[in-house]
Amino acid sequence: MKKVCFFDTKPYDKLYFDRLAKEYGFEMVYCESKLNEKSVVFAQGCDAVVAFVNDRVNAEVLQALDEMGIHIVAMRCAGYNNVNLKAAQGKVRIANVPAYSPYAVAEFTMGMFLSLNRKLNRAYNRIREYNFSLIGLLGTDFYGKTMGVVGTGKIGQVFIDICLGFGMRVLAFDPFPKEREGVEYVPFETLCANADMISLHCPLTQESYHMVDEAAIASMKDGVILVNTSRGALVDSSALIEGLKEGKIGAAGLDVYEEEGDYFYEDYSGAIMPDDELARLISMPNVLLTSHQAFLTREALENIAETTMDNLRQYFAGESLRNEVSFTAKTERAEKTEK
Ligand code: NAI
Q1: CATH superfamily label, 2-100+298-338
Q2: Which of 81, 101, 148, 267 is 20 to 30 A from 12, alpha carbon to alpha carbon?
Q3: Residues with catalytic function
Q4: What's the pLDDT at 196?
Q5: CA–CA distance, 9 with 116 (Å, rounded to integer)
C-alpha cells in the first residue's frame, strides 16, 4: 500500500480524503504542519506528498524529497506559484487540480462585493449591539455599474456570468481574450480607469506580480471597490493601504494576502499580530479580509480529493499524468514568488 504524506491537514481535508483512501488503496499520513525545509522530514518513509497553497515546495524541500525517494508532489489546489518548478525538473513530478469548482470562488467573490458595497459586515456587528442606525451604511446599485475582471479563465468566466446577471457592464483584461457577448476586452490601464469595481482572477506570475501597485491604484476611479480572491502578491499591500487611507479605494475585499503563509489557516487569537500591514488592513472598516476560504465548499472539497487521488493513482500506475505541471519559460514564476 502506497503511503501518502499529507501536509497542512485540517479536519475538513481529512473528512474528504479519508472517504477515498480505501478506494484508491493509499495509507494517508496526516501532518498538521505546513510543508517547509524543517517539516519535510515527516515525509520520510512515504511514497508521495500532498501539499497546499501555503506549503513551501522550494528547491531545498524538493531536494530532500528526491533524497527520500519521493518523486511526486500532488498539489491539492489549482495555483502552484509556491512550487519551484525549475528545481523540481528531473527530480520530483508535480500535479495540480486545475479545476474543482470555479463556482465556489466566483460566488464568494460576488459575496465580498455585495458585503462591502452594502456594508453587511458592519451592519451585522452593529445589530449585535442593538445599534439600529443606518448612518454610514449607504451603498450603490450594482445594476448599470462597470465591473473590471482581470483574468477571464474558469473562475473569471463564471464571475462574469454573475455580473451580467446583475445587469452590470463588464470590462475585461486577459492576455488571451475569450470574446463573448456582453464583455469588452480592454488594456489593463483602460480597465483601471473605467471600472467602478475590480476583481482579480489571474494567476500569480512574473508579469502579474504587484500588478495592482501605486500607479495602477492612482489611475483607478475614486471610491473603486477592489476584490482579490486570486493570489495575495497580485496587489502591493503598502500601496493598497495608502490607497485606502487616501479614500481612493472605497473598499477592499481580500481573501488572499501577500504574506498570508505565516498566518492564514491558523488561530492567532490572543496573540499580538506581528505583521503591521495585515493588522492595519484588518483594522479598517471598509476592508473585508478572509483567510483564503473562497474555495471552501463541499463540492470543491469533493472534487479536490477526487482529482488529487486520481493524480496519485495515475503516477503510481505509470500512466501519463493528466494534470502534470512542469517548468517552461511561462511558468518561471516559481522562482520569483518562492519564499
Ligand atoms: P485559469 O487558469 O482558468 O484562468 C486564469 C486566466 O488568467 C487565464 O485566462 C489567463 O490567460 C489569465 N491571465 C494570466 N496572466 C494574466 C495577467 N497577467 N493578467 C490578466 N490575466 C492573466 O485559472 P482559474 O481556475 O480561473 O483561477 C484563477 C486564479 O484563482 C488562480 O490562479 C488562483 O490564484 C486563484 N484561486 C483562488 C482560490 C481561493 O480559494 N481564493 C481557489 C482557486 C483559485
Answers
A1: NAD(P)-binding Rossmann-like Domain (3.40.50.720)
A2: 81
A3: 231, 260, 292
A4: 98
A5: 31
